[in-house]
What does this fold into?
Amino acid sequence: MALWPRASLAHDTGLSPSQRAAPAFALGHNVASRDEVDAVMEQARRAGATIVKPAQPAFWGGYSGYFQDPDDHLWEVAWNPQFDLAE
It folds into this structure.
């Protein structure tokens, strides 16, 4: 779990903190590879999610993207090369 100020989350996603369903938090889904980030993002899009920020290299060295599900919950799908998900 990571805690970020609302303004930082809005900056990272590109969403305005004043818009409807503004992100107060994001659910994070960590995966094992960049390719898996892309696959999960595409699966979410096909299921009706809105891609908020396409998957791309992240400033922290990983690869991530954001989507909002049909209920406006914000999700980040991320691969962090420093995490070994097999642990």
The CA atoms of residues 38 and 57 lie 12 Å apart. The longest strand covers residues 50-57.
